[in-house]
Specification:
Length: 330
């Protein structure tokens, strides 16, 4: 057995250990936790959307705690400036010479896991300060570029029901998130009661403890890249993305009627990489068509730009992607 195959075979156990440790404070949300772990191992950024009080922030904090990575929280507000998150040059005193020198003061982006809390509450100028960091894993301040330490993840949250004082993310930034995950209410009364009980008896469960360090995480991410991707599934992923564009001849009827702009090639890249991570946490050395189909909605839902008719007819990206999944064959 090769080293990569051995690491892939260990992934299911890693998945269970991480989820078990996170369950000290997170109740239920099994599928959501799997998607977060998939994005994490695939090296992708995640956008979490849900109403207040569903533990979005707590989930990201807990992920930081169990992975022992450097964690940083940025509370996005209307008055937040780009330098507040990237860092800035300051004038300092050189103790050796007594003169003044310029020194770079790193901002909160210089961490491994960034919680971008309520990212849609800050203006586009500050939102766009994340673009370079998310894509190139570096930050430019003035005339200098500073690399960010690997691994680097941005997990952003936003509230879908409040629109006053918010700034929708531009498509260019949305496209850099590997997945958009919807955080739902607890599944049933028992689960919601357990959330309340867990809050009142927090001392009994203790705080989540680190179970994996930075080097092990980087090795796991490298193992994900070794998961095999058959050429037929590469073409299948590309076809699923291409038919989201209304000018494509094979586009389903809902796409031609309701979509203004479809997804670009980065969507297919993210779809394949997420499928590799899903196969890895299942202990499989090769991705399957089922992996791609399960990840289609979270990977593409935020990349479709719909027209006005879709809002009038109450048709959402999820509905369109379901039709694509049903009608487009391997």
């Amino acid at each position: 057995m090769t080293e990569a195959a051995a690491r892939i075979s260990e992934m299911p156990d890693l998945r269970l250990r991480i989820k078990k440790e996170m369950s000290r404070v997170i109740v239920g949300q099994e599928k959501l936790l799997d998607f977060v772990l998939i994005g994490f191992l695939a090296g992708g950024h995640l956008l979490l959307e849900g109403v207040p009080g569903l533990a979005k922030t707590l989930l990201v904090r807990t992920l930081g705690a169990v992975t022992s990575l450097k964690f940083s929280r940025i509370q996005f507000t209307p008055d937040l400036m780009p330098a507040d998150i990237t860092g800035t040059d300051i004038i300092d005193l050189d103790r050796a010479t007594g003169g003044k020198v310029s020194r770079f003061m790193p901002g909160p982006l210089f961490a491994n896991i960034i919680l971008a809390d309520e990212i849609n509450r800050t203006p586009p100028k500050t939102q766009s300060a994340l673009l370079q960091a998310m894509q190139e894993k570096e930050v430019t301040v003035g005339n200098r570029t500073y690399p960010l330490q690997e691994p680097f993840y941005v997990l952003a949250t936003q509230n879908p029901i409040e629109h006053e004082g918010t700034y929708p993310l531009p498509e260019a930034q949305l496209d850099r998130f590997m997945m958009k995950l919807i955080v739902n209410y607890p599944d049933d009364l028992d689960e919601e009661a357990e959330v309340i009980s867990r809050f009142t008896r927090r001392a009994e469960f203790g705080e989540p403890q680190p179970i994996i360090d930075r080097d092990a995480i980087l090795q796991a991410c490298r193992a994900v890249l070794q998961v095999a991707v058959p050429e037929t599934l590469v073409r299948y992923a590309a076809k699923l993305v291409r038919v989201t564009r209304p000018n494509e001849s094979e586009a389903p009827s809902d796409v031609r009627e309701y979509v203004e702009w479809g997804a670009g090639p980065r969507a297919a890249e993210h779809l394949i990489r997420a499928a590799q991570a899903k196969a890895a946490i299942s202990g499989r050395p090769t991705i399957s068509a089922a992996d791609i189909q399960e990840l289609l909605i979270p990977v593409l839902r935020h990349r479709l730009v719909l027209n006005y008719k879709s809002y009038a007819d109450r048709v959402w990206p999820r509905d369109i992607l379901k039709q694509i999944k049903e009608k487009i064959e391997l």
